[in-house]
Design brief:
The protein is mostly beta strands. It is built from two helices and nine strands. The chain has helices at residues 46-51, 65-70; strands at residues 2-3, 12-13, 25-26, 37-41, 54-60, 79-85, 89-100, 103-114, 124-130. Strand 7 (89-100) and strand 8 (103-114) form a beta hairpin.
């Protein structure tokens, strides 16, 4: 997966694992200069797939996203599991609950932030969410 698709210079690219019998669906906007990516895949059971498919979201990092995750109001069974930051990237893993259709689901989240190499560029985030 690479974005944007309509230019020679790419903001980012990444590879996703392939699972026999499963297909990633691309829900991104179909525009050549689009920098965001939304992919969903049916990797859980039938009920989970209808309510919460596995998702990969990528694009430019929102300014307050990292502090919001680090200081989130988590319950006793959820929260940040791993938080590693270097000059080039940030990796955060955490769990949280989300309510859908009268039920609460525990969601496992992985986020990698790739720091921009130039000052006029934005950092890029790749975010994986698994029910």
């Amino acid at each position: 997966v690479e974005r944007p698709t309509g230019t020679k210079r790419k903001l980012y690219y990444f590879e996703l694992p392939l699972v026999k019998g499963k297909v990633w669906g691309d829900y991104s906007r179909d525009e050549p200069k689009e920098t965001g990516t939304i992919l969903k895949g049916p990797f859980g059971n039938k009920t989970e797939n209808n309510i919460f498919p596995t998702q990969v979201i990528a694009g430019k990092l929102e300014d307050e996203m990292i502090p919001r995750i680090r200081t989130g109001n988590y319950s006793s069974e959820t929260g940040v599991i791993r938080d590693v930051e270097t000059a080039d990237q940030v990796d955060i893993e955490w769990t949280d609950y989300e309510k859908r259709r009268y039920n609460k689901y525990k969601i496992h989240n992985f986020m990698r932030v790739l720091r921009a190499k130039e000052k006029n560029q934005k950092d890029v985030v790749v975010f994986l969410q698994i029910p």
